[in-house]
Design goal:
single chain; alpha+beta; 13-stranded antiparallel beta sheet; three-stranded mixed beta sheet; HcyBio
């Protein structure tokens, strides 16, 4: 397939080096594409910056706390009484964002508050706070210690890597509750009898809505991660490119996901925070920004996506979701969701976002500044993430 505009990552990086690069955020790109069309937009713009900020449960920290004296082969590890998985190596462990502090009453007093967990430990470490590290081992000839306890900060850790198996969901369902009681879910508190609806995406700012077929994103893509620089390391768990798509090629339900990693010592707690979800558990709220190189008019078209183009299905989390029943209550656009109300079965229902559009825009703007200042260069993926069998160049493009 021949494109009328063709650029390479190397060419765009040369423009960054010479301070000649043209970078806009995803909101700005909408007007450029509408005004000039996607071919002229592709000629004018080199990079579109995207952003998202919200709760991303499939996250955690891979930590090496360095060898103790005497040495220990830590089979069990805790940070502030939150257990990490110790079955990695002697002083390597993985702290999951959803791990709960020992002794938490959980949902025994319903709804549970879940005041502290793995996500909060990660935030505290990045903030430079002291954290109590405890470790237990069974003792070996080369690792004789059986116990270790010490207050540490992130500077005491040999390695602290944010290592997240599934982030940046490309789309997600809208949640309602058809039952006659209030329920507490990872989609927030849902009132009975379809009295509210919640959703979780930045919409037109979200990274994978601006590259819906993953044509520029893959293993090795450099990204903004928690206020520092990170990388896409693989497609995320539950990545499913072969879902129903609309006339613009946008998925109508959960589709692509990214696995990402980055150095926690670079990160900023403005963009990464522990989360407590009433009646559900703990998690991590995280900011991610992905630069989309405008290598041709197809990418310019995709980056011209607006909230009115993006649709999501509505599902009942009161009965259908927990029982794995796939009945839907229709499609709504992000323009409708962001208006504050949607119509379900003839009823006007108020909507609430679980992600922050304000923070997503801030992240896109910060990433834009990094690129314009020559502090951030794009990377060519070593391999693109899992592709959709429906993808054909320019199939959905209308310039």
């Amino acid at each position: 397939m021949e494109f009328k505009v063709n650029k390479t990552i190397d060419e765009i990086n040369e423009k960054i080096k010479r301070k000649e690069v043209v970078v806009v955020n995803a909101i700005e790109m909408i007007d450029i594409v509408r005004k000039h069309g996607c071919i002229e937009a592709a000629k004018k713009v080199d990079v579109v910056t995207t952003g998202t900020f919200g709760t991303m449960c499939s996250s955690g920290a891979l930590i090496n706390f360095w060898h103790t004296k005497p040495k220990i082969k830590a089979s069990k590890v805790w940070f502030n009484d939150v257990e990490a998985y110790g079955g990695v190596a002697a002083v390597d462990c993985y702290l999951g964002a959803t791990a709960v502090k020992e002794g938490d009453p959980l949902n025994s007093i319903h709804p549970g508050r879940f005041n502290y967990g793995g996500g909060h430990v990660i935030e505290d470490l990045i903030a430079g706070k002291k954290v109590l590290l405890r470790a237990e081992g069974y003792g070996t000839d080369c690792y004789p210690a059986k116990e270790f306890e010490k207050e540490i900060t992130i500077s005491d850790l040999r390695d602290a890597t944010l290592l997240n198996p599934r982030n940046v969901y490309q789309n997600y369902s809208v949640a309602i509750n058809t039952t006659d009681k209030t329920i507490y879910t990872y989609m927030g508190v849902l009132k009975p009898n379809i009295s509210n609806a919640t959703y979780s995406s930045a919409g037109e700012l979200s990274p994978l809505f601006n590259d819906p077929f993953y044509r520029t994103i893959g293993i090795g893509t450099r990204i903004f991660l928690g206020g520092g620089i990170g990388y896409v390391i693989y497609q995320g768990t539950q990545h499913d490119p072969d879902v129903e798509r609309n006339e613009r090629g946008l998925p109508k339900s959960g589709a692509g996901t990214l696995a990402v990693a980055g150095d926690m010592k670079q990160m900023n707690t403005r963009y990464i925070k522990g989360a407590s979800i009433l009646g559900y558990g703990v998690s991590l709220s995280l900011g991610i920004g992905v630069p989309i190189p405008i290598i041709n008019e197809e990418m310019a078209f995709f980056c011209g996506v607006s909230d009115e183009d993006i649709q999501a299905y509505v599902y009942d989390y009161g009965y259908d979701y927990p029982n794995k029943i796939s009945k839907t209550y229709g499609l709504v656009t992000y323009k409708e969701l962001k208006s504050g109300t949607i119509i379900i079965d003839g009823k006007e229902v108020p909507t609430t976002p679980l992600s922050s559009y304000y923070m997503a825009l801030e992240i896109a703007e910060e990433l834009k500044k990094w690129i314009l200042d020559g502090k951030f260069y794009l990377t060519k993926p070593a391999c693109l993430i899992g592709q959709s069998s429906d993808y054909e160049p320019l199939k959905y493009v209308k310039c």
